[in-house]
Amino acid sequence: MIYFVTENWLKTKIPLTANIDMAKVFPYVESQADMRLQPILGTYFYTYLLGKYNAQMLTVDEQNLVKKIQYAIGWRAIEDCILGISFELKNKGIQQQSGDYSNPTTLSEANYIEGRMAKKAEFYEERLIKWLQANSSLFPQFLDEQNDSDMKPIKATNTGYNESIFFM
């Protein structure tokens, strides 16, 4: 299943090198879609939209929503995978990755970069929430009472932004 972003999308819209092993990135895409997007959309609408995205049956309004979703998910996935790619859990414990013509970064440098990625992701999440609130009438599944059964969507806040969706 594709969680709203493809390898091509990530490599053209997010600063990734061409030789990055995307098999190491995509687990972060899935987990960030579950952790960050589901609380914004609600589980019912999230599942509905994900199914339509994978079936390539999105309406024009849903396509516009997915464009906003992609940036939020893309930046969150990259933020999350920075440490996961730099440090991997092996049989001998946590190992720092190193290449023939590169030097591994320090933990403090990785944390700094991760923080910058998080700020970009927060910007796109806030933008997504505000857009969805302003256009919620376009999405009956978002407003459907079934959408309150598991993770409830953010339907209204005073600022258009709800900090409770962040797992810091």
Descriptive notes:
With 168 residues, this protein is mostly helical. It has one domain. It is 58% helix and 5% strand. It has six helices and two strands, in the order H-H-H-H-E-E-H-H. A two-stranded antiparallel ribbon has the order 1-2. Strand 1 and strand 2 form a beta hairpin. The protein is elongated. The two termini are 27 Å apart. The C terminus is likely disordered.
List the topology elements.
Elements: H1 7-13, H2 22-41, H3 43-54, H4 60-86, E1 87-90, E2 93-96, H5 107-134, H6 140-143
Antiparallel strand pairs: 1-2
Helix pairs in contact: 2-3, 2-4, 4-5
TL;DR of this structure?
The chain has helices spanning 7-13, 22-41, 43-54, 60-86, 107-134, 140-143, and strands at residues 87-90, 93-96.
Descriptive terms for the model:
168 residues; mainly alpha; disordered C terminus
Helical run tally: 6
> What is the number of E strands?
2
Structural class: mainly alpha
Largest sheet report: 2 strands, antiparallel
Q: Looking at the structure, what is the overall shape?
A: elongated
Cross-sheet strand order for the largest sheet: 1-2
